[in-house]
């Protein structure tokens, strides 16, 4: 006798937990029941819920929710890594942000998570040669979320952009895995060059609020950039830099600054 197939949620613990949290949210606050059903419980998979959320946020008079949703669903079907990266981002926010108590929060409420997932969709379209649609998504992400990430930029997994206001990431920027940054961060250029002109951020880096990292420079893995700093030169791995212009003020202080989210450093160093 054939055994019944396990439910899809049993094979996807992140999605299973989100659905449980959705049911609990409706019990505690019935007024959001319609939104939670439409955004979570109506969907069979995490990817479908994600596509719905992105399309709902980015739709406008110029581009319907249906077109955007069909585009997102096709992208997730063709490139499963998109939804896997979204799961890594979701778990990263839950682990690092003390204001995040449930996995459902970033999906429904955190514009940093939603902006990064919309960027991922735009980046996929960019790699497929659909650049005008990618530019449209970049435009709408900037208008809706206040986050401007060029679709050609490359970003790893486990990304957290906390508060996510006035964030700018340029065309040739590269962001590694498990990077955390706060609001008003700029990964920008220094002039009108049209070649490789933006920063390369290593794995595990923590970038404080208002920091500006400018030019084709390298920020080494597991380093920290203090809030308000202007970084114009390479940063060695596992160092803390601060100031305008930024200089090395000490060691990173831990193995994974982006995970501990510790922004303090010893001024005696």
TrEMBL record:
InterPro entries (alphabetical): Hexapep, Hexapep_transf_CS, LbH_SAT, Ser_AcTrfase_N, Ser_AcTrfase_N_sf, Ser_O-AcTrfase, Serine_acetyltransferase, Trimer_LpxA-like_sf
Gene Ontology terms, MF aspect: serine O-acetyltransferase activity
Pathway named in the protein's UniProt entry: Amino-acid biosynthesis; L-cysteine biosynthesis; L-cysteine from L-serine: step 1/2
Keywords attached to this entry: Acyltransferase, Amino-acid biosynthesis, Repeat, Transferase
Substrates-to-products reaction catalysed: L-serine + acetyl-CoA = O-acetyl-L-serine + CoA
Parts forming coiled coils: none
Every Serine acetyltransferase N-terminal domain range: 14-118
Top EC group: transferase
Protein name: Serine acetyltransferase
Biological source species: Yoonia vestfoldensis
Gene: cysE
């Amino acid at each position: 006798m054939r055994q019944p197939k396990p439910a899809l949620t049993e094979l996807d613990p992140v999605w299973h937990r989100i659905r449980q949290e959705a049911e609990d949210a409706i019990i505690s606050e019935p007024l959001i029941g319609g939104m939670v059903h439409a955004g979570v419980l109506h969907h069979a998979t995490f990817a479908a819920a994600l596509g719905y959320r992105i399309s709902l946020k980015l739709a406008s008079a110029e581009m319907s929710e249906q077109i955007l949703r069909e585009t997102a669903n096709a992208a997730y079907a063709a490139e499963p890594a998109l939804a896997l990266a979204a799961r890594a981002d979701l778990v990263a926010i839950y682990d690092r942000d003390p204001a995040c108590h449930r996995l459902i929060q970033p999906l429904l409420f955190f514009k940093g998570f939603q902006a990064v997932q919309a960027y991922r969709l735009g980046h996929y379209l960019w790699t497929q040669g659909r650049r005008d649609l990618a530019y449209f998504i970049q435009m709408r992400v900037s208008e809706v979320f206040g986050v401007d990430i060029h679709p050609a930029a490359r970003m790893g997994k486990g990304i957290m952009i906390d508060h996510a206001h006035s964030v700018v990431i340029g065309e040739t920027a590269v962001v590694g895995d498990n990077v955390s940054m706060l609001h008003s961060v700029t990964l920008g250029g220094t002039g009108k060059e049209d070649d490789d002109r933006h920063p390369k951020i290593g794995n595990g880096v923590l970038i404080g609020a208002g920091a500006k990292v400018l030019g084709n420079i390298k920020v080494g893995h597991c380093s920290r950039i203090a809030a308000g700093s202007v970084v114009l030169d390479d940063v060695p791995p596992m160092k803390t830099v601060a100031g305008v212009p930024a200089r090395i003020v000490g060691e990173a202080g831990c193995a994974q600054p982006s995970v501990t989210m510790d922004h303090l450093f010893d001024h005696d160093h």
